[in-house]
């Protein structure tokens, strides 16, 4: 049977806390990445102007 003492419990929670910190860092990196994609999209739209409406592809099939 596993003996529980303060050292093993602290070790367990230090490991859990470390994983929580890693997940927070990952979420922060992903958030920054998607913000960068959004900024690049805004910049490209401002450079090329508004999009022209395209003809529907399926109109000629009717």
Summary keywords:
62 residues; mainly alpha; rod-shaped; single chain; 1 helix; 69% helix; HTH-48 domain-containing protein
What letter string, H or E per element, gives the SSE order?
H
Structural class: mainly alpha
Mean pLDDT, all residues:
83
The number of helical runs is 1
The proportion of residues in beta strands is under 5%
How widely separated are the two ends?
Answer: 75 Å
Number of strands: 0
Radius of gyration, taken over Cα atoms and rounded to an integer in Å: 26 Å
What ranges have pLDDT less than 50 throughout 5 or more consecutive residues?
none
Helix content: 55-70%
- Please summarize the sheet with the most strands: none
Shape: rod-shaped
Protein name: HTH-48 domain-containing protein
């Amino acid at each position: 049977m596993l003996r529980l003492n303060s050292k093993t419990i602290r070790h367990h929670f230090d490991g859990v806390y470390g994983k929580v910190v890693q997940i927070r860092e990952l979420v922060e990196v992903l958030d920054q990445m998607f913000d960068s994609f959004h900024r690049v999209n805004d910049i490209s739209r401002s450079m090329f102007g508004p999009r022209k409406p395209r003809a529907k592809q399926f109109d000629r099939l009717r």
